[in-house]
## 1
Amino acid sequence: MTSEPQPAAPASSGTPLVSLRDVNKHFGDLHVLRNINLDVARGEVVVVIGPSGSGKSTLCRAINRLETIDDGEITIDGKVLPAEGKALTKLRADVGMVFQSFNLFAHKSILENVTLGPVKVRGMKGGEAKELAMSLLKRVGVDNQAQKLPAQLSGGQQQRVAIARALAMKPKVMLFDEPTSALDPEMINEVLDAMVALAREGMTMIVVTHEMGFARRAADRVIFMADGQIMEQATPEEFFTNPQSERAKDFLGKILSH
Amino acid sequence: MENYLSLFETYDVPAAFWVNIQLSFWAAIWALAIGTVLALFRISPIPSLQWFGAAYVNIFRNTPLTIILAFGFLGLFSVMQISLASDLNLSLFRIAIVGLALYHAAFVCEAIRSGVNTVPLGQAEAARAIGLSFLPAARLIILPQAFRGAIAPLGNVLIALIKNSTVAAAGSVATESSGLMKTMIEFRSDLVIPIFLTFALGFVILVIPIGLLTTWASRKLAVAR
C-alpha cells in the first residue's frame, strides 16, 4: 500500500527467511493489518515500532499464527505457514517467541521450562536437554536459578529464561513481542543486553519494541507501522535522523522530546 | 438409650455406609475420568467435540439423578436386560455406579473447566509457540494447572456425589444407607428421630474431612503466578 520508497536492503542476499505477501487481517470492523508486505533476510534484525494499536504486535503474532490472517501468505524458510495441524506445529517449533508477559510455565521449574520443548517436541534425551538448557541459562545469566519456580524470579530474570526457552528449540527466527514493556525500568537493560548479544551472534530477529536505544544499537532495519500499514522502513540511522512520513515524524517527535 | 443401642445389634449400619463409600469411590474415579475427557472436548479446537461436550453436560446436569438411576435399573437392567455381573446384586451395584458416574461427570467437567479458566491464555500460547499441539499442551501445561485450580470445586462435586450415592436406592441397591434407614424406620417407628440423626451424623462425619482436605490442598497446591 505504501508509496514511500523502501530504501533499506536486506542484510544478506538469497531467499528471505520470513516473507509476508499482501497480508490482511480484521478484528471485526477494524482493519488491523493492511496489505503487509515484508521480507526478512537470514541473520537480519528487524525492529518494528509504531504507536499503540498500529498492528505491530498482531503482525508479530501472525508470523507463528498465534493470530490467524484473513488473506495473504506468510512463508518461513520457503514454506507457506499452514492453517493448522502437524505442519503448523512443526513450523512453530522453528520460530522462537518471546512474549510481553513472559508466559513461563508457572507449575514447572526454570530448568523444566527450558527442557520441555527439546524433550517433548524434538525428542531429545533428558540428559542432553538438561545440558543444553543449563548452557543457555548460563548464557542469559540465570543458571543459578534453575531449580526455582518462575514466580520466585524477577521479571527481568523470567524474561531471560523465556529467551533461553525459545533458544532451546534452535529456532530459525526469533519473534519478540514487546519483551520489555512489562518490566520495571531497572530490569529492562538486562533483557536488552541478552537480545543484543543474540543479534550479534547472527540470529534472525523480528522485535516489536518501544526501546529506541535497542533499535539504534542492534537493528539492521527499522519498520514504522501506523494504522495497520508499514509506513516506512529504513536503517536506524536514516530513520531516526531523517524520517520521511508525517506519521513517523510526529511519532518520533512525541517520544524523543524528553 | 438401651433401646437405641439395640438398633446396632439388629441392623448393620456401618456395612450400609460402607456400600455408600464403595459406590462413591468407584463413581468418583469414573466421573473424574469421563469428566476430564469431556473438559478436553469442551476446550478442544474441534467444533464437533465442543458440541458433544456441551450437549453431554447440559443433558446430564439437567436430568434428576433419581431418573438416571431409575432408568439404569428399569431401563438398562429390567427391559434391556443389560447385566454387568453374573450376580444380581453386584450387577445392580455396578449399574448404579455407572449412573452416578455419568451424572457427576457433567459436574466434574464444569469444575475442571473453571480450573482451566484460572490458567492465563499466555500459558497455552507459550505451549503452542514451542511447537506443542493441542493434546500435549493440554496434558503437560494446561490440565496440571487447571486441576490445581479446580481442587475446591472438584471437592464440592465429591461431597455431592457421596450424599447423592443414597439415591442408588432408586436403582434398587437396597443395601446402602438410605435403604437401611427406610427399613429401620419401618420396624422401629418409636425411634424415628434418633435413626434420622444417626444417618445424618454418619454423612457429616464422612463429608467434613473432604471439605477440610480440599480447602487445605487447594491452598497448598495453588500455582504461584
## 2
Amino acid sequence: MNESLISPFNFSHPTAVQTSLYALGSFARFDPSGRFIGVGRFDGLATIWDLETKAAVRWLDGHVKAVTSLDWSRHSQYVLTSSKDWNVIVWDLASVYDPPQRHATIRCDAPVSSASFHPRNSQIILALLSTGEVYLIDLRKNHRSRTELYEPDGDEDGTEGQSSRRYAMTVARFDTSGKYVFIGTSGGYILVFNTRTKAMIARHRIAGGAGTIKGLDFAKNGRRLVTNSSDRTLRQFIVPHYPRSPETGVEIFLDQELEPTHRFNDPINKTAWHAVSYSPDGEWLAGGAADAANHKIYIWDISNDGQFASTLDGGREPLAHLHWHPSKASIASTTNQGNILIWHSPNAERWGAFAGGFEEVDENVEYEEREDEFDIEDEAEIIRRKKEAEQDDVDIDTIDGANAPVYPVVNGFHVNGGNGAPLSGNVGESLDEDMKWADEDANDDIGVWKMKILMDDDDM
Amino acid sequence: MDPLAGMDDSSTDDDNASQTTEDDPQIPEHAPAPPPPPSAAPPLPPQPSLARREKPHYELRHTLTGHTMSISAVKFSPDGTLLASCGAENIVKIWSPFTAELIRNLTGHTAGLSDLSWSSDSVYLASASDDTTVRIWEVDTGLTHKHLKGHAKWVFCLNYNSTSTLLVSGACDGDIKIWDARKGKCVKTLHAHLDYVTAVHFNRESDLIVSCALDGLMFVTLRCVSILRNLRIVSSRIWNTSTGQCLKTLAEDHNAICQQVQFSPNSKYILSTAHDSAIRLWDYKNHRCLKTYTGHTNAKYCISACFSVTGGKWIVGGSEDHKVYIWDLQSREIVQVLEGHQDVVVAVATHPSQNMIATGSIESDLSIRIWEDHSRQGHQVQGTTTSN
C-alpha cells in the first residue's frame, strides 16, 4: 500500500541489494503474501525467514538429503518441500509446536526433483521425479489417488512418427488457475494435461527446436509463459486457448507448434540461465545468468516489446536461483554460496516531504500568481467550508487490499477467496467443472491463521 | 471553564431530542437497554444514515482501585480477557475487566512506567519505563521474558507490530528504536526527534511507523520511513544518520503540539490528539485532515484517544475536565460524556470485541473505570470472555 506513497509513479524493477541473508540455501522462494521467504538447503533442512525481522523463524527438519524445491499454499499456511531423499513433506506453519511437525509425508519411488501445490487446493500436489516421471497426488479423502501423467502412445498413426514419449519430463508446473499441468521434456516439447481428468490435451513443439526445457514460469495473469531451455535462450509464449468439444465438454487434443513471441538471450557471453521469473504485473522478466564468476540478473521490459532493461550485478558469488516478490519490486536471488540477496528499488530521499504542503518540482517553473492568491478570506467562511469538507464519511476499519498480494488481478477484476471468480487467465470462463473439482474438500488453508509468536530463551 | 461551553449546539441532550429515531432516547440508569432494531446492526456499512443516529449508552461497570500513583496507560489484551495498567509506580497491574479482580502485579522496573503494549496472542506484554528499559513480560507467569536495554533516556511509548515480531519504542531524548521482539535486540535506531517522543505506532503492514514528539514534530517511521506533521524544520543531519526516510509532512495552519498518534484499524488514516483541544483524523496519503473532534479540554497532558469499532463507530478520548468524551466518527458530534473520574483522564482503551471502555486517571483519583454498553451487540460475541 505504501508503494504509492514512496513512488507515485509506476511499478519498477529492483535495482540494488537491500539485505543479504546468510541462509546456506540452494534456492529461496517468497510466500504469496511476501512476508516470508522459504529456503531449501543441501543438508535437507528448509528454513522460513521472516522479512520483517530478516531472521529465520522456523526450521523444517524432515529431509535427510538436499531439498530440491519448496512451494507455498495459497494463504502461506502450508509449505511443501521435496527432496532427493524420495520424500515430499507438507508442513503446517500454524502449528503451535516448534519445530513444526510435518502435516503429511508422501513417499515417492525416486528422488523428487520438484513438487508444487495446486493453486486452489493444497491437497493436490504435483511431483516431478528425477527419473523423468510426473505424478499428480491427490490427498483428499474422496479422491485419494496417485496418477502418473504420461503421453499416451496408442495413436501413433496420426502423430508424426516421432513421439516425445521417449523423452524424460524435466519440468512440471500447474498453470496459474490450476486447471492444467504444463510439462517440459528433454526433447523440447511442452505437454499439457488436464488436472482433473489427467488426460493429455495438448502437445506443443517449440518452433525451431530448443533442447531440454529446464524451467517454466507463468506471468501472474496466466496468459504468458516463459521457458528456459538448454539452448541458452528464454522464450516467451502466449498460452494457447484449449477449446472444448461442445458434446463431451472435454478439451480437444491439440498438437501444435508454438512460436515464441520473444526470445531472450545474452548475445555476447552466450550464458545459460539458471532461473527465470516474471514481475507481479508481468511487465518485467528477470533472468538469472549461469555465469561462473559473477552474480548477474538480466531484466527485460516486456511492456516495451521485450527490450533489455538492465543488468543487476550482485557481486562475485555466482547466481543459483532467483524469485520475484509476489507484489513488490523486489527479487530474492540465491548465490551458490547459499547467501540470499534481497533486491529492492531504493528511493531517493525527498526533502520536500519534510514540509507540509510543499511540493518538489523537477524543473523550474514560471510561477503565476493566482488572482485570489493573497486575498484575505473571511474566517467564518473558511471554518464553514472546512466543516463541510469534514462531512464525508470515512471508513476506518474495512481492510481492503489485505489479500491483494495473494489474489492477482485477473481479467481486470480482483479474484476473491475461493468464491468463484476465475483464477485462470482464460477470458470469460466462470467457475467450471475443473474449478469445482479442485475446490472440493479444500483444507483449512483459508487465510486466517497466525504464526505462533516465539521468543528466544537465551536472554537474561 | 465549562467544557461544554466551547461546543457548538451539539450537546448530548439536544441530539437525543432532535435526532434519535430509536424509541427510547433516554435510557434509565442501570436498566438494561432494549436491543436496537436488527436493521440498525452496524455490520452493514451501506447504512451510514441509520448508524449515525445511534448513540452509545455506556454505563460505569467497575471501578478498579489499587494504583498509588498517577496512571499512565490502560490496555486490553487482544483476546479481551485481561486489562493491563501502569502508572508512575514501578509495577504493571493485570486485571480482569469483567470481575474487576486484580490478577497479578508485574514487578521488576525500577522507575515509573509510561506505556504498555500486548503481543497479538495476548501472551506477552511490553512495558516502557523511566528506568530507560523496556521489559517484555510473560503475563501468565509474571516473569520478565526480555529486558530491552539501549535507550539513553526514559522510554515514553511503545507498540508491537501486528505480527508481534517487532517492537517500536520512543524515548525522551527523541530516539526511536525498533526491536526484534523475539531476540530482544535493537535492530534500528532513528534519531528522529529533538524532544520527548510521545507516541509511536505501526501500521498493519508494519512498513510504516507514525510517531510524534513534544518538539512539535510528528513522525511516522517504519523501519525506513516517516510521515510527519511537523511544525519546525528538521535539520537534514538528523535524517542522514538514520536510514529512515521522511515520506510526508502533514501540516495544518495551527501550531498545536501533537502528543498522540495512531493508525486507524485499517491503516488508511491517522488519529492524532493535540494540545489545542482537538482530535484529528488524517488522510496521510492526501495530506488532508478529514475530521476534527472538539469539545473536550486538552492543553497540557498527553491524553490518549482511540477508535471504538465494536458497536457503532466512535472516537473515545480523555479530557482534562475529568470526563471521557465519545464522538460519532462520521458526524463529529459528541454522543456521550462519561463522568465519574475525579481528575484528568489520560488513559483510554477500548475492548477489542465488546462494547467496553477502560479509562484511567491521575493524582487525586488513581482509579481505573470500566464502562460498558449493553444496548447493542458487539461485532463478535466471543466465548473466551464468558469464562468467568
